[in-house]
Amino acid sequence: MGATLDGSAHAPDLPDSIREALQMQILRMMLLQMVLAIAAAWPVQAAEQPVLRENGVVLEYGSEKGPRAVLTFDKNRAAKAALTVETFLAGVAGSKVSIFVDKDPKPAFTHIFSNEECRFEAERSHCTVVLGGRVTAYGRLLDNFRRGRMSKLQVETGGVMAMSHETTLLGFSNAYRAVKE
Fold it and tell me: Over the range 81-114, which residues count as b (16 or more CB within 10 Å of their CB) and which as e?
C-alpha cells in the first residue's frame, strides 16, 4: 500500500477476483475471532470432584439424564465390595468398561461385563461389577487414582463407544484418607 500526497492510504489496483478473495478472507478471520471470543466467554462445566459419603468415596462420570457411571471405593478395603463400578444406560453383557488415568494410553482398569452383572430396569441397562480390596486390579486402580489428576471412563459395546466421560481426581487422595479414619 502506498500513501497519497494528502496522507490517505490507497489500495493498489487489483483484479476484482483477487479483491473479492481478500474480502472473503478478511470476513472469515473476523467471523473466527467472534466465535473464539464467544467460546472464551462461555462457561465451562467443571468436572465433578470426588464425593465423601458414609460408605466411601464416590466418583461420578456422565450426567443424570444420559449415560453415566459411578465408582464407589468402600471405606473397608477388606470388604468383598471394596470397589463397585456401576453403569447406567451404557453397557450390556459383553460391553467393555475401561478406566484411564491422566494421559496413560493403557487403562488402569478393564472389565468385560457378564450376563450376571447386567440387567434391565424400566427399559434401561444397569451393569455392576464388584472388586474385593485384595484383588490386584483394585490396588493398581487405587494407586493410580491417588497419584492422578484426571480419569476417563469408557464403555464400549460391540466396538462402538457407548460412553466416554472424564472426572477430576483432585481431592481423591484426601477423601480416601478421610474415609478410612
Answer: ebbbbbbbbbbbeebbbbbbbeeeeebbbebebe
- pTM for the whole structure: 0.69
Kindly state the percentage of the chain with pLDDT values over 70.
83
pLDDT interval class at 112 (50, 70, 90): very high
**pLDDT of 85:** 92
